[in-house]
Amino acid sequence: MATHGRCMCGAVEFTVEGELRDVVNCHCHRCRRWSGHYWAASAASSDDLRIADDGTLAWFSPADGVEYGFCRTCGSSLFWRLADRPDLVSVSAGCLDQPTGLRTKAQIWMSEHGDYHAPLSGLIEHDHD
Known about the structure:
Helix content is 5%, strand content 44%. The protein is mainly beta. Strand 6 and strand 7 (66-71) form a beta hairpin. The longest helix is centred in the first third of the chain and has 7 residues, at 29-35.
């Protein structure tokens, strides 16, 4: 089964033609700035991801080996990837068409979570220092 997603303006559309990982909420300082809160992301094999855009998909690299994909037109945060893991791409859960069938399973980088909210309870927690 394929899962479809898109940016807010529709200039970047994508389809995942394979399995999506359940959602992980990342609380690191980069993802918080990237999304405006924690970043809720699924992930898929790069081979399963089909992206259609009219030249508006752009990639930003805030540090060596890390890239964030976004729409130049509307600014939607869409993707995240590591240079040393070209086989995997993280996909913004909020950009996926409903119903996704996904569940939030974990939260990471808890040492950097925003002080304005309480972390969700009942999730697996991983902290990376």
